[in-house]
Amino acid sequence: MAFTTLNPATGAVEAEFEPHTPEQVEERLTRAAETFASYRRTSFAERAGWMRAAADLYDAEQPEIARVLTTEMGKTYGSAKAEVAKCAMCMRWYADRAEALLAVEPVETSAGRAYVRYEPLGPVLAVMPWNFPLWQVIRFAAPALMAGNVGLLKHASNVPQSALLIEDLFRRAGFPEGAFSTLLVPAGAVASIIEDDRVAAVTLTGSEAAGRSVAAAAGRALKKCVLELGGSDPFVVLPSADLDRAVPVAVTARVQNNGQSCIAAKRFIVVDAVRDRFVPRFVEAMAALVVGDPFDPATDVGPLVSRAQRDEVAAQVDDARAKGAVVACGGEPVPGEGWYYRPTVLTGVTPGMRAYDEEVFGPVAVVEPAADVDEAIALANRTSFGLGASVWAEDPAEQQRGIEELEAGMVFVNAMVVSSPELPFGGIKRSGFGRELSEAGIKEFCNAKAVRVA
Ligand code: NAP
Asked: Whose CB among 69, 118, 193, 215 lies 3.0–4.6 Å from 446's, allowing a Cys bridge?
């Protein structure tokens, strides 16, 4: 089966690529293993030089690269350019800091000299999703390559142009052949690649179902695995919240990337004390969003990635409506060409409705009322996910309750949850395990080798 790029704004075929043959995959695995043997001995300065050259290419070619993202998965052109810029920033961040982050750590011992040194593991397989086609890959690849690992990318089947483009940019930046290779293979090929002796470890960003099968394959092969899975992040509005700040951020936090972000705020839990002032303004702002051509600078929300994804979101909303939820705005696809869905706010959503129990990957906000802070936190934690959480409060005591009691890998106070190189990124519960970015991320795929010289 060929890998096809369908433009979500038009439904038209943009490009098609044949999958790699078993021989081509074999050649890439061999090259990765051979390259690792020499690449691991390159200096931090050499790797940093190539990484900075890659960042420069991303900056220089930003408009063309962003165009690929928008036509391939539908994000607005402005957000695509921002994604390209963020990748360049992350590459420079690790180029500047990897040596210090992985410096030898002396350890006090009772006898002899002791220290910990961080060594790369080998070829790491990255199984990645389509929603941030560059950023998801670069936040793995920048630290992994700076640590001396080599990368193998199995990207989502609907973004083959992005997958090939990333490989090409690393090659043109000067990285040795085989330091980063794209494998155009279907999901069904992943387990056998994980089991291959030449592959040292695997990282997956994607759905729970994919997480289960990648973790199972890694378990069978006894290989290190990092999982960044779904989220149903709460946006918790407490009694002392500054609503003038909270409302516009709530809208952005839900509809960023056309509503298709793992860390998008998906459940808006609003205490009674502010509900009458928050909800109408939130609904009004969501209803006012401009839906349309992702290349039009006036557009706030572009199309969903595929017809199937648009229909899935519609089915989740229809299920809630049929079971008694109220559609405060939106609640339907936009007729005509492209896979657009109107920004939607649902109230009166209760357990047993799909929109309550599942992650909704589109511009649909679920508002849940809470009597007080206790109930708001209990509702926020009543989910199988634990990725991010955003809590809104001016009162330090309310802020502290959110920080301490929300069950999530990341809590942002008076801000939406975002990823950046400075902070560890990842979740708990069924949002996965392990961390990306920051010092934690670069150490995930390192051997912390303990050394004692008696
Ligand atoms: P997906 O279907 O799980 O796909 C993600 C990647 O996994 C793709 O490369 C896919 O390949 C592959 N894959 C799917 N099933 C697999 C299997 N059984 N074995 C091995 N690989 C498999 O997810 P998606 O629909 O593209 O992305 C949306 C999901 O990703 C959402 O749940 C979102 O929350 C999550 N996400 C999480 C994060 C995070 O950092 N926590 C970030 C972004 C997105 P094919 O395309 O070939 O099927």
From this structure: 118
